[in-house]
Design a protein that fits this description.
The complex is a heterodimer. The N terminus of chain A is likely disordered. Chain A is mostly helical. In chain B, α1 packs parallel to α14. By secondary structure, chain B is of the alpha/beta class. The chains are: A mainly alpha, B alpha/beta. At the A-B interface, α1, α5 and β2 of A face β13, α13 and β19 of B.
């Protein structure tokens, strides 16, 4: 992964997260469900997409935008971008605590952030 | 006292109380213990005091199985032995390394870590190390700036390494040995045969030769073979006049269970913020101690894995570092310097005082004891007429499973703390793939081949390093290891030798 690409994505992420959440966001970076927050500070678009594709390949039942969005939304129905982001961040941490981890494209990720990568890759295709 | 065996009249008879065969870390450590004692000690060294290509060629052999370094590159054949090119990495075996682990076939020593503790403390001095302390809690008090990565201590721990200068035994101990009135060092005295009595229950004498065409006989009350794991097995196997399968080899164990440490790049760790990871860094020649990430005994048992550790190198530098298996091809010290020089250049290229966002994780993991990983004799002979050694280096799926699991565990632990993420290298990603990548290598650590155990059917030496069934023959060094643990072998082999030395002193005193 190129360091420059990672910096670009992080900056873009910060910009996007300061904007209100729109259901009709066309870019995956705009959708907190599809943006693994911590991982996006490390990984560039290509890396996130690769991880997402690997997850989808290994989990055909979840290879669907609607299915993934539903799983990732969980009980968070407010539509508030910050709230969704915080809820997902908590779930990522909880996943690690409870050993709900997966290895995708070599990355040891929380199940939640792997699903976020998967949604990211669908929206980015 | 020093005698060049090339200058002696042919067929000289040399006699002493104890004959130590090999003057490397083990042989010299033992000889030092017997200085100024009322015993005549014969110390036999095959080479001279310096590197010589012709002497080194006596160590040449063949390799089959997993790709390995040329045998003559990994060991040095002159006074001081392989300490002439070792890097000085020292750490202790953990208690679990001595235990029988049901998930590690052929594991379990007849001694425990606590049996070695007093000898570890003494070995520290031979190797110019610091205090016998290997806990992070102790060392961080010496330098609080060496901060640990955050992790669950139930899963990971900071495995401490101390660094010898590195002590070159040939340089440091030559004067002591040569000036000792009761140590008789014979250089250019290569043991080519050991003669036992008729029923092979005791050793009568050894035959030594050199390239000057001289042959001599050495008689002693006790014989200690301290020539490294490959040569220890080779000498026993080649000494087959009284025992057709080789001395100590009635049960076909000599040469088997050859072990290395797999030393291989395995994963990456990425951080959102740059970090120097000072605790885990090393500057060769300057750093006195550092940590690697170790896996706790509890996690090893839970995941059924071998013991191994992970060290860190800035990824930017590590990407420029060729694999050891591609560059450690020569025993010539000048060639060796060139190979290591490339790593320094790579580190310099990546200099960044603020730290790094990414590190390569490099594994050092024990090899599972494996009877098919073994030393045998070739039909080809060396310049002294002795059959050359052949190595079949054989790995099992357990090594790969262990490396993969180690990084999954580290990945989970580092994920828990939101410090970073871990990425496994391509060759570890498919759980069904047991093949090894081209860059797979060892650490130039040779262990096993005359393993220790209580049962002669499954081992070569007993808990005191005496060859089963032979009253006065002992093995010194890493060839006695039952398992390899994660640490580099030198500290433990010196400790084990000091323990053997104390045992021999008791026997000699009782006999007197």
């Amino acid at each position: 992964m190129e360091r420059r690409a990672f910096v670009r994505l992080s900056a873009y992420t910060a910009l996007v997260l300061s904007m209100p959440l729109l259901d009709s966001c066309s870019k995956p970076e705009d959708n907190p469900l599809a943006l693994p927050l911590f991982f996006s500070h490390i990984a560039d678009v290509k890396t996130i997409t690769e991880a997402g594709l690997a997850y989808r390949k290994a989990n055909h039942g979840e290879d669907d935008r609607t299915v993934l969005a539903k799983i990732l939304s969980g009980n968070e129905t407010s539509g508030d971008k910050k709230a969704i982001e915080a809820a997902l961040d908590n779930r990522v941490k909880q996943d690690f605590q409870t050993n709900k981890t997966v290895t995708v494209s070599g990355w040891v990720l929380s199940l939640t952030e792997a699903r976020q990568c998967a949604l990211f890759s669908i929206l980015n295709s | 006292m020093h005698i060049d065996a090339k200058t002696l009249p042919d067929n000289t008879l040399i006699e002493g109380d104890i004959c130590i065969i090999g003057a490397g870390a083990a042989g010299i450590s033992m000889a030092l213990e017997w200085m100024n004692k009322p015993y005549k000690v014969i110390l036999l060294e095959g080479g001279g005091f310096n590197y010589e290509a012709a002497m080194q060629d006596l160590y040449r052999g063949k390799e089959t199985g997993q790709r390995y370094y040329p045998l003559e590159s990994a060991r040095l054949h002159y006074f001081g032995g392989t300490t002439g090119h070792w890097a000085g990495f020292c750490s202790v075996f953990e208690p679990i390394d001595f235990e029988k682990r049901d998930w590690v076939p052929h594991s379990g020593w007849p001694i425990k870590r606590e049996d070695l503790d007093p000898f570890y403390a003494r070995a520290q001095k031979n190797l110019d190390l610091g205090p016998y302390e290997y806990s992070y809690d102790y060392w961080v008090k010496q330098d609080p700036s060496k901060v640990s990565l955050p992790f669950d201590p139930e899963a990971l721990y900071n495995k401490i390494w101390q660094f010898s200068p590195p002590t070159r035994f040939g340089e440091k101990y030559k004067d002591s040995i040569v000036n000792s009135p009761n140590i008789y060092l014979y250089t250019y005295a290569n043991v080519v045969d050991i003669t036992a009595n008729e029923n092979a229950s005791a050793i009568k004498q050894v035959t030594v030769k050199n390239l000057a065409g001289k042959e001599h006989t050495v008689k002693a009350k006790y014989f200690v073979i301290a020539c490294c794991s490959v040569q220890n097995a080779r000498i026993l196997l080649a000494s087959n006049k009284q025992a057709p399968r080789g001395l100590g080899n009635d049960n076909d164990n000599v040469g088997r269970f050859f072990m290395e440490h797999l030393e291989i790049k395995s994963a990456e760790m990425w951080f959102p913020e740059p970090d120097l990871l000072k605790l885990y860094s090393i500057e060769f020649g300057k750093t006195k101690w550092r940590a690697e990430l170790g896996i706790t005994a509890k996690k090893q048992e839970e995941h059924k894995i071998l013991n191994g550790t992970a060290s860190f190198s800035p990824l930017e530098a590590a990407r420029h570092q060729p694999a050891f298996i591609d560059i450690w091809k020569s025993s010539d010290p000048n060639e060796r310097k060139k190979a290591f020089g490339k790593f320094g250049e790579a580190v310099d290229k990546a200099k960044n005082k603020k730290g790094y966002n990414s590190y390569q994780l490099f594994t050092r993991v024990e090899q599972s004891p494996n009877p098919n990983s073994r030393i045998t004799l070739d039909t080809e002979t060396d310049a002294l007429g002795m059959r050359r050694a052949m190595l079949n280096w054989d790995l099992t799926p357990l090594e790969k499973h262990s490396i993969r699991s180690i990084y999954e565990i580290i990945g989970q632990e580092i994920g828990k703390t939101s410090k970073g993420r871990v990425r496994l290298m391509e060759y570890l990603r498919d759980v069904n793939d047991n093949s090894w990548p081209e860059f797979t290598g060892g650490g130039w650590h040779h262990m096993g081949t005359t393993r220790m155990g209580d049962d002669p059917k499954t081992s070569v030496v007993d808990a005191n390093c005496k060859v089963h069934g032979i009253a006065n023959l002992f093995m010194a060094g890493a060839s006695c290891y039952v398992t390899a643990a994660a640490p580099n072998p030198t500290l433990t082999l010196v400790a084990l030798t000091l323990r053997l030395s104390d045992h021999l002193k008791k026997i000699a005193a009782n006999r007197a």
